[in-house]
Write a structure and sequence with these properties.
By secondary structure, the protein is of the alpha/beta class. It has helices at residues 73-80, 103-109, 126-133, 142-146, 150-169, 185-197, 215-232, 243-249, 267-271, 274-281, and strands spanning 6-8, 14-16, 35-44, 47-57, 62-66, 88-93, 96-97, 111-113, 203-207, 235-239, 252-257, 260-265. Strands 8-9-10-5-11-12 form a six-stranded mixed beta sheet, with helices on both faces. Strands 4-3-6-7 form a four-stranded antiparallel beta sheet, covered by helices on one side. Helix 3 packs across helix 5.
Length: 289
């Protein structure tokens, strides 16, 4: 450890030691966090949109980021993916800084995301939407693709097989040749997640995945989130307003209000935190009429 509290690993990678109040699942104890964010902030003109955002996510943790509308949650996701460049602070992904990286480079490092408003290629098939997510893993170069050399057809076949494999994990292989825009809402949400998984992320960011879902679709989503963690052995950080989903699937939760974290803890700790109740969860009347 150097004088700034940073740890230099044996291969020269610079990383931070986890803060003392970090809550990681037992299975992730002693492992380098997949996400280590310290003092992150961004200003838009005179507005301090996010300030001193600090969070640690274990390699296989399901974590939640909650808070009122306008608290800065999606802005945090835009910072983590370098859509926005932070004014201050540091982001380490698997011990490596994302500073100066493009959005595409951050994705290749291991962060994938979905969006609050579904972003699919509606005129393309379900299969081709997933294949788009596999573009980082194509084994042929531009010349081989342009000239339609054997390597191109081999890569295309391999891509289709991998896409079908991902679809089958979520029981969507029968929809492979359906246009994405013709899928029911819940299936479109699943497809967007599958496409993100196709990039082979270490950390999956889900921005309000249950938005617009009915209770049965939300229950299925809850199982899908656990299945993703257990099948792919990756971390998930989700923004969500559905407290039933958050409290039942997340292992650690951070609460954001006016761009600052006001509480961190387990679901049980968050539910009983007075600051969180005041700012977000709301008071429950002790007596019913």
């Amino acid at each position: 450890m150097n004088n700034n509290g940073k740890i230099i690993s044996s291969n020269g990678t610079e990383m931070f030691s986890p803060p003392s109040n970090t809550l990681l699942p037992t299975r992730d104890a002693g492992k380098v966090p997949v996400l280590d964010v310290r003092g992150l902030g961004i200003d838009f003109g005179g507005l301090r949109a996010v300030d001193d955002f600090t969070i640690t996510v274990g390699p296989t943790e399901i974590a939640g980021l909650i808070g009122p509308n306008g608290a800065g949650k999606t802005t945090v996701f835009n910072l983590l993916t370098n859509v926005y460049k932070p004014t201050r602070g540091a982001i380490l992904l698997d011990g490596k800084s994302t500073s100066g990286k493009t959005v595409d480079q951050v994705n290749k490092m291991g962060i994938a995301r979905t969006f609050q408003n579904i972003r699919l290629f509606n005129k393309m098939t379900v299969l081709d939407n997933v294949r788009v997510g596999l573009h980082n893993h194509t084994d042929c170069n531009f010349a081989e693709s342009f000239l339609r050399l054997p390597a191109y057809f081999k890569a295309e076949r391999k891509s289709s097989e991998k896409a079908m494999e991902l679809l089958s994990i979520f029981d969507m292989e029968n929809e492979a040749y359906t246009l994405a825009g013709n899928l029911p809402y819940g299936a479109q949400r699943r497809l967007e997640i599958i496409r993100a998984l196709a990039t082979s992320p270490k950390l999956l960011l889900l921005d309000e995945p249950a938005a617009g879902m009915n209770p049965s679709e939300t229950a299925a989503l809850m199982e899908s989130i656990r299945k993703i963690r257990d099948t792919f052995h990756i971390a998930i950080l989700l923004i969500e307003h559905d407290m039933n989903l958050v409290m039942n699937v997340c292992e650690g939760i951070a609460v954001l209000n006016f761009g600052k974290i006001i509480a961190k803890g387990s679901p049980e700790q968050i539910k009983s935190n007075e600051a969180v109740i005041e700012a977000y969860l709301g008071h429950h009347d002790e007596e019913e009429e």
